[in-house]
Structures are given as C-alpha cells and as structure tokens.
Amino acid sequence: MMASKISTSIQIDTVNFASRLIAWQKMHGRSGLPWQGIRDPYLIWVSEIMLQQTQVTTVIERYGQFLRRFPSLEKLAAASLDEVLAEWSGLGYYTRARNMHRCAILLLNEYGGLFPEDPKVLESLPGIGRSTAGAIAAFAYAKKTPILDANVKRVLSRVYGVQGDLQSKKKLDELWDLAKKVLPKNARSMPIYTQAFMDFGATWCTTRQPVCLMAKKTCPFISSCFAFKNQQVHDLPQKKQKKASPEFYADMAMIFYENSVLLVKRPPDSIWGGLWCLPESPWIPYETTAEATAKATVKVSKMKRRVISQMLKNIFSAEELDSLTSSAQEFQMGISLQHIFSHRRLHIQTWRIDLKELPKLNDRKLIWAPLAQLDSFGLPQPIKLLLREIAT
Ligand code: SF4
Hints:
There is one protein chain. The chain folds into two domains: 3-229, Hypothetical protein, domain 2 (Endonuclease III, domain 1, Orthogonal Bundle), CATH 1.10.340.30; 247-391, Nucleoside Triphosphate Pyrophosphohydrolase, CATH 3.90.79. The protein contains 16 helices and nine strands. It has helices at 17-28, 41-53, 56-69, 73-78, 81-88, 95-110, 119-123, 130-141, 150-159, 169-181, 190-203, 226-229, 289-302, 304-312, 318-327, 381-391; strands spanning 3-5, 11-13, 247-257, 260-265, 276-277, 284-285, 328-340, 345-355, 366-370. Strands 3, 4, 5, 6, 7, 8 and 9 form a seven-stranded mixed beta sheet that branches. A hairpin with a 5-residue loop joins strand 1 (3-5) and strand 2 (11-13). The longest helix has 16 residues, at 95-110. The termini are far apart. Bound molecules: iron/sulfur cluster. Iron/sulfur cluster is lined by residues 155, 158-159, 204-205, 210-212, 219, 221-222, 225, 227-228, 233.
C-alpha cells in the first residue's frame, strides 16, 4: 500500500481507491439511466447540464424529450432561444438553457460543431464548469481528468477526512488535488470510474443514510474510511449554517382578452431571464399574511384603477395604461401561490383583469398568448401552474 501526503497532513491510500470504486460499480452501480454508457459528447453534455440542479427522476423524464426536440448540436444551435426556454420550462435555473443555446452556437461557429477534447478548452465554453468539463472529457474521450460534484466532494471528504468549509478556495483546491490523485492509472477506465464515483455518492455514501451506518451492505472503503473509523460520518462534509431565506411579495396581473392572456418577456439578466411572465409589481419584502390580506382587501374595494396602475406602470406607457384600465370590465383578486427558489421565497398574489376590448399596446416584449397554446411558451414553473389553473 502506498501512501501520499496532502495538505491536511492526512496519510492516505490513493492507490486502491479507483480499483475499489470500479469493482463496486460492476457489482452495484446504477444501470438503465438513459445517459449511461454513451460516448457522444452532445448527449453527455445535455445530461450533465440537466443533472446539475435537477433531480435524477425529473431528468429521466425530460432528457429524452429534450433530445427528441433537439437531437443534435446543429438543431439546438438553429433553434430560437424562445424554443429552448420553452423546452426547458419547469426544470428551473434557466441560465443553464440560455448558456446551452449560446454554447451550441459557439461550437458550431468556432469549433466546427465538435466538442473539444481538452478539458481546459471545454471549461472555457458557456455554462461548462470545471467538473462538467471533466465529466464530458472522461465519458466522451476517456481523458484522465477528475470531476468534483457534490457526491464526489462528500465521498472524498469522508474517506480522507477533509474537514472544514468545502466551499472555501483552500478546501476546494485540496479536494481537486485529491480527486486528481485518486484517478485510475489507466485512462481507458475513466468512463466507468467517473460513473462509479457519481453512482457511489448518489446511492451508497449518501448524505443521510450511508450504507456503513445501515449495516446491510459492506462499503468497499469501510476498512480505511476516515469518517467511519472516527465516527464522523454524519459530521463530514461539514454542514453549512443555513441562513433564513428572504421572502418577497409581488402582485401579478392575469390580463385576459377572449381566450388569450397577456405575457411579458423578462429581461435576460433577471430571475427567469428571457422567459414569458405575467406583468408584475416590483418584488417587495414580504409582510405577514394578515397584513397582506388586509391591504389586498382594501386594494380590491377602493383602489381598483390605482392598483392596476401601480402594478403595471413599469411595463406599460401612460397611454397604454389608460387604454387598459378603460377596457377592463372585471377586476378581481385571483389565486395566490408561494414559490420557493433555492435562496428565497416569493409570495405571488394574482389579479384577474378581463378586458372587453383590445387595448393599444406597442411593446414588442408583450404578447397575447392563447390559453390553449401555453406549452409553446417558455414560462417559469409557478406561472405555468397559475395559468393552468385558469385554463383548465
Ligand atoms: S464507510 Fe461510510 S462514510 Fe465511508 S465511504 Fe463508505 S459509506 Fe461513505
């Protein structure tokens, strides 16, 4: 057994790590995931980007659907951003879809439609970070390059006892060094090894129920795992202190004319950038439900025109607003919804406005979307839910 030294001064066995993981994969690795065993960098790239912030069960459903719509890099690059966002709708973290579209165009224009083999070059492309570049290079080209996703960080920190805040630059550097040290000798093993690391972290060395504490399966690292030997399995990796998520409130207008609803395109650099949304008020810090309800009631009974104006003044010109408010035949408080983002919560109160005639609207970022065709628009998930509620 050979030991090498890393900056934590932990003496570690890095030699047998890869072979144990590969042997484990052959016996216990996941099988049947639609992106497994693939060597086509386009298909790998799509799966890696989807899996970044979306659960495997959801990706299984959506991966095939995305590839049926955009079966190749060329088809993705030729599509409009609107089409890509519409296909991505519901998966969240829409920057991923925007970057994929940019990346596809760039690859087509500057790389002859081919994914580079060099992980450093891959990493320079839009939306491809170091770990994703490593995964593409390992799966598609069997390059000896590490990955460092959340599963890999957890396994490494437990097996080798990496303490401290794993998000800090120092610890990240340490983990990357370690991830490099434990790579298999033979580059041909890279695809199975990389899949093994992902699968082992996702199914055996899990956050809450690692197999070593369940006494049902024998972990291949049990004899040397730092966390197990030192009874620190639940302490590693070190948990981040969770801050309370800030809460916001926004009014949103559901403006209907006949069987269509008015949608507005969000600016590209905002939350839900580039997606179609309902016209909305600025987001303000959320007050207690009782206060908000009391205010809302006052809004409905006394301030109809002013509410419309306040909610919509950032979107419509004075002339358009006049036209809108004068053609509103009905105005009612609509459904409300809470949407949880990764770091914030949004309380949405909708206001239903039915128009008796079409107002004059000049803004090209506005569109009357037929309720029967909402699926062809890129809509954020909560807006989709709100409109489905109305349309069904
Ligand atoms: S012994 Fe437990 S903590 Fe260590 S690698 Fe195995 S499952 Fe993970």
